[in-house]
From TrEMBL:
This is LLM class flavin-dependent oxidoreductase. Signal peptide: none annotated. Keywords: Monooxygenase, Oxidoreductase. It comes from the Bacteria. InterPro entries: Bact_Lucif_Oxidored, Luciferase-like_dom, Luciferase-like_sf. Residues 9-314 form the Luciferase-like domain. It comes from Robertmurraya beringensis.
Length: 352
């Protein structure tokens, strides 16, 4: 099932990982990492990119645990760029507090706040905030139901399983936007894609490895479920998220990025209880034209985004370009390349 697309938003997201630089062994402090993230958002806004997202982790090797606080700081440094979580672990946060935080962000940013909600690949927030990991899915479903209702009305009466009931409760403040835009982050789960469609919220697909074609059934299922539930096509928005690194030539991009991506993959695999090191040969295969890793020259990245757009007809593409201890000057260069040499061509081609 394909949909007509009027355009595409292009932007960036970060998880704020704190990993030793593979060349120097130096580790950036959390404070400096946060300041660099704010500067990256400012650069992205000034360069004309459309959206900037920050992810949530509750570990010492990540700098961002409170996304509304970081995004509120960004709101004061930027003017136009949309500000979103990427993602909010909805299973382990109170939906009322979450709504009030992002409604406040929306007011401070003059209507630029969004939320990408997910169940989370990392599970440290469950014991940290007193939730049972065995209720992983039920917590997400209940919290999403409540959050969507909070987004609809100023006063709410509600009863659920995991938090206290609400009786004619006033939900304050209300956002500047009529409703906060809500997306659901989806990895590879058909059930999650179908659920997002049934709810009529956006779907942000994390395409981090493998052939992009294997994600097309998820997008089709999402749109079919949304249509069946009676949602109009303009509500069923698809976003693609992925890792990226851009340089003047594809060889330069691969040579420069491999050490950082390799250490990043090893770090994440270790966190998830996996072992093994990414070889250079495996890395080069991940950057092939049909695969999901956005590493290469501007022309190669343009072609890869446009190929994915033929598959998905998506409305948003956001890249994570600051991983593995990458120095900030390289991140800044990547922002400039994305904004001046990639985004304009992608927008022009898609607008045709």
């Amino acid at each position: 099932m394909q949909v007509k697309n009027a355009g595409i938003e292009i932007g960036l997201y970060t998880l704020g990982d704190i990993i030793p630089d593979p060349h120097t062994g130096k580790v950036i402090s959390p404070g400096k990492r946060l300041k660099e993230i704010l500067e990256a958002a400012k650069l992205a806004d000034e360069a004309g990119l459309d959206v900037f997202g920050v992810g949530e982790h509750h570990r010492l090797d990540y700098a961002i645990s409170s996304t509304p606080v970081v995004l509120s700081a960004m709101a004061q440094l930027t003017k136009n760029i949309k500000l979103t979580s990427a993602t909010t672990v909805l299973s382990t946060v109170d939906p009322v507090r979450l709504f009030e935080d992002f409604a406040t962000l929306d007011l401070l940013s003059n209507g630029r706040a969004e939320i990408i909600a997910g169940r989370g690949a990392f599970l440290e927030s469950f014991p940290l905030f007193g939730f049972d990991i065995n209720e992983y899915n039920d917590l997400f479903l209940e919290n999403m139901d409540l959050f969507l209702q909070l987004n609809q009305q100023e006063k709410i009466t509600w009863k659920g399983q995991f938090r206290s009931s609400l009786w004619n409760a006033e939900i304050s403040p209300r956002p500047l936007q009529d409703k906060l835009p809500i997306w659901v982050g989806v990895g590879g789960s058909p059930e999650s894609a179908e659920r997002a469609g049934m709810l009529g919220v956006g779907m942000a697909v994390a395409i981090l490895s493998g052939d992009s074609m294997r994600f097309k059934p998820l997008v089709d299922l999402y749109r079919q479920a949304g249509s069946k539930a009676g949602h109009s096509s303009d509500k069923l928005r698809v976003g693609v998220t992925g890792h990226g690194y851009f340089a003047s030539t594809s060889q330069k991009a691969r040579d420069e990025f491999y050490p950082y991506y390799s250490v990043y993959k090893s770090y994440v695999n270790q966190q998830l209880g996996k072992t093994g090191k990414l070889s250079r040969e495996e890395f080069d295969q991940l950057t092939d034209p049909d695969t999901a890793l956005f590493v290469g020259s501007p022309q190669q990245i343009v072609e890869k985004i446009l190929r994915q757009h033929e598959l998905f007809g998506h409305q948003r593409f956001i890249a994570q370009i600051d991983i593995g201890g990458l120095p900030f000057e390289k991140v800044a260069e990547g922002i400039e390349i994305l904004a001046t040499k990639i985004a304009p061509i992608v927008r022009r081609e898609i607008s045709k």
